[in-house]
Amino acid sequence: MPRSASKTVLVTGASSGIGEASAFALASRGHRVLAGVRREADATRLAERLGGRGQPLILDVTRPEQIEAARAAVEAAG
């Protein structure tokens, strides 16, 4: 997919299961992935596996300040 056609997507619950699989599937299709995880250890692991195709975010959807930080990251990603 040409870079101009790629999208930035936010995936919550990206530390395991369907969220993790979705993050890698989207990244492999050329999208920039912001991968929401709750723990630093998961963020580190995902950062290594996603390489330049994505960025992990500490995101607990029950914490308003983390939701706001994720919103800012999405806006900054363009």
Give an account of the 3D structure.
The chain has helices at residues 17-28, 40-50, 64-77, and strands at residues 8-11, 32-37, 54-58. It is of the alpha/beta class and 78 residues long. The protein has a 3-stranded parallel β-sheet, sandwiched between helices. β1 (8-11), α1 and β2 (32-37) form a beta-alpha-beta unit. The longest helix is centred in the last third of the chain and has 14 residues, at 64-77. The protein is globular and about 30 Å long. It starts with 7 loop residues before the first strand and ends with a helix.
List keywords for this structure.
single chain; 78 residues; alpha/beta; three-stranded parallel beta sheet; 3 helices; 47% helix
Radius of gyration, Cα only, in angstroms? 12 Å
Extended strand count: 3
The average pLDDT score comes to 90
Q: What order do the strands of the largest sheet run in, or round the barrel if closed?
A: 1-2-3
SS strand fraction: 15-25%
Describe the secondary-structure layout.
Layout: E1 8-11, H1 17-28, E2 32-37, H2 40-50, E3 54-58, H3 64-77
Parallel strand pairs: 1-2, 2-3
Summarize the structure.
The chain is α/β, with parallel strands linked by helices. The protein has helices at 17-28, 40-50, 64-77; strands at residues 8-11, 32-37, 54-58. It has a three-stranded parallel sheet with strand order 1-2-3, sandwiched between helices.
